[in-house]
Amino acid sequence: VQNIVVQNQEFGLSVDEPTHPWYYLGYDGILGMTNPTPNAMGTYTLLYQMMHQNQISEPLFSFYFSRLRILRHVFCLFGLFVGDFFSSILCSSCFYRFAIGNQATGWCSEGCQGIVDTGTFLLTIPQQYLRNFLQAVKAPYEDSYVVDCNNIQNMPTIIFYINGSQFPLPPSAYVSNDNGNCALAIEATYVSSPNGQPLWILGDVFLKEYYSIFDRGNNRVGFAPSA
After folding, report:
1. Are strands 186-189 and 123-126 parallel, antiparallel or unpaired?
2. What are the residue boundaries of the Peptidase A1 domain, all occurrences included (predicted)?
């Protein structure tokens, strides 16, 4: 990776996976980039090994996910930071999590937590807000979340308030269009954060809109509008 050589990195091998969804996915493995603490098996992540073996100049990495369906490009850069980002201090040593508030709806008035996760395809919404969300975007309350493709431009923009900055998510981002079949790219979260607050997961739906940087040295995560 970028001429980085890591010695003695341990890997886990999964020999049996359920047919759905793994059979249909276009990749062969998962490279976890969580904070550099030992995992359940007592081994360390690749990020920790890069830092420990002095393979990167700064303890950070950034992530870009192309919006273009025909490209499917994903770029991950290590130890490099250029430009201005809106950042948020992490409030967990294990996951990239931060406070979220939405004053316009009243959701999260008593606080929410969010996780940035490149391994989650959808925007994951706390189950207690799901019905209100569907009403706001005028979508039926059913598992398929099917919407009218001709009405996407009339659907509202979702705005996340993170550390005092606004991060809009337009309907073109949270609605998937598969050859004229449109549906909300969302699912419900049925677990809370460790402190009991509602939990959002900002997956690929969000990351296609915002270039992200994970700064372990300063214990923060930052976002900038993606090109």
Report:
1. parallel
2. 1-224
Query: pTM score, two decimals?
Result: 0.78
Question: Which residue from 145, 169, 147 is spatially nearest to 157, judged by alpha carbons?
Answer: 169
Residue 70: per-residue pLDDT: 45
* Residue 62 β-bridge partners: 77, 213
Identify the segments of the chain with pLDDT beneath 70: 1-2, 17-30, 32-42, 68-104
Write down the pLDDT at residue 85: 58
Cβ–Cβ < 8 Å for 226, 210: yes
Which residue's entry shows tokens 């850069």?
A: 77
Please give the Cα distance from 9 to 106 (Å, whole number). 46
E runs forming strands in the chain: 60-65, 74-78, 86-89, 97-100, 112-116, 123-126, 146-147, 158-162, 165-169, 175-178, 181-184, 186-189, 199-202, 210-215, 220-225
Tokens of 161: 């308030």
Tokens in use for 101?
């508030």
Kindly report the CA angle at 175 between 169 and 177, in degrees rounded to 5? 140
Cis upstream peptide for 140 (omega within 30°):
no
- Report yes or no: 76 and 61 within 8 Å, Cβ to Cβ: yes
Report the C-alpha gap between 94 and 155 in whole angstroms. 35
Asked if residues 88 and 216 have their Cβ atoms less than 8 Å apart, the reply is no
